[in-house]
């Protein structure tokens, strides 16, 4: 059963999760974080920035959930750039210890396997931060994704491309493909923290926590994990 924490606002959610992550890093200075992009985890990164002074983060490792395929790593909206800008630089993490899946066309044939091997070599992910898409996707595991899936290339749905078009000039600039940790990869993390805010996420949150465990709502995979915390505001919790 997931522990569900309903908070008045996103900054409160950020504080709760950041406190937990600071405890983890103090206990285990080489902790392995699973880093998510999107707007939902931003309050966590903001709150972490306020708490990280005096904490040794020099050995903290991190793995991003996903990456666009065929977008130059230097593009401002590649998840490599986003993670660098929003997490690595503000928190002073060592960029050499933070990985994102290789979304370059050259590397794509082997990128999934290599990413899985790197996660395994790091000893697995201690705490995986997750957002959820309006269609219930986690990472970029769109409806229909196998619960056993590992890091691999996927095609983005029209809905996700529309949702993410706000980061690009137009929807035509949103890549068609991505490489994402699989649901099976995510389920192997030692703990999961899912964040969601706003009415637009209410159906996805209700389905993930209370709906049938089904590939048609990939977020429902969290019900198979023993250590899950869901932190949501009242609007996102309104259909629970
Ligand atoms: C993208 C990311 C997901 C994220 C989702 C929701 O599709 N790949 O990891 O959970 O967006 O984003 P937001 O938190 O901005 O609503």
Automatic annotation (TrEMBL):
GO cellular component, one term: cytoplasm
GO molecular function, one term: glucosamine-6-phosphate deaminase activity
GO BP term, pick one: N-acetylneuraminate catabolic process
Residue ranges occupied by any Glucosamine/galactosamine-6-phosphate isomerase domain in the UniProt entry: 14-227
Enzyme active site: 66 (proton acceptor), 135 (for ring-opening step), 137 (proton acceptor), 142 (for ring-opening step)
UniProt site positions, description: Part of the allosteric site: 145, 152, 154-155
Pathway: Amino-sugar metabolism; N-acetylneuraminate degradation; D-fructose 6-phosphate from N-acetylneuraminate: step 5/5
Family stated for the protein in its record: Belongs to the glucosamine/galactosamine-6-phosphate isomerase family. NagB subfamily.
PANTHER family recorded: GLUCOSAMINE-6-PHOSPHATE ISOMERASE
UniProt function note: Catalyzes the reversible isomerization-deamination of glucosamine 6-phosphate (GlcN6P) to form fructose 6-phosphate (Fru6P) and ammonium ion.
Protein name stated in the entry: Glucosamine-6-phosphate deaminase
Organism of derivation: Labedella gwakjiensis
């Amino acid at each position: 059963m997931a522990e569900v924490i309903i908070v008045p606002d996103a900054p409160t959610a950020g504080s709760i999760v950041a406190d937990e992550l600071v405890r983890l890093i103090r206990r285990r200075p080489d902790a392995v974080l699973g880093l998510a992009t999107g707007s939902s985890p931003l309050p966590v990164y903001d709150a972490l920035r306020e708490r990280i002074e005096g904490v040794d983060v020099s050995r903290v490792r991190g793995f991003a959930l996903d990456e666009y395929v065929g977008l130059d790593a230097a593009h401002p909206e590649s998840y490599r750039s986003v993670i660098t800008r929003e997490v690595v630089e503000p928190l002073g993490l060592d960029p050499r210890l933070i990985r994102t899946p290789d979304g370059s066309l050259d590397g794509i044939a082997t990128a999934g396997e290599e990413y899985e091997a790197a996660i395994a070599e790091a000893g697995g992910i201690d705490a995986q931060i997750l957002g959820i898409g309006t269609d219930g996707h986690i990472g970029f595991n769109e409806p229909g994704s196998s619960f056993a899936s590992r890091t691999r290339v996927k095609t983005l749905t029209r809905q996700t491309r529309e949702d993410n078009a706000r980061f690009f000039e137009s929807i035509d600039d949103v890549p068609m493909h991505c490489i994402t940790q699989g649901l099976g990869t995510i389920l192997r993390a030692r703990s999961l923290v899912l964040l969601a805010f706003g009415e637009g996420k209410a159906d996805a949150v209700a389905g993930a926590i209370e709906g049938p465990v089904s590939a048609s709502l990939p977020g429902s995979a969290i019900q198979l994990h023993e250590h899950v915390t869901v932190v949501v505001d009242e609007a996102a919790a309104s259909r629970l």
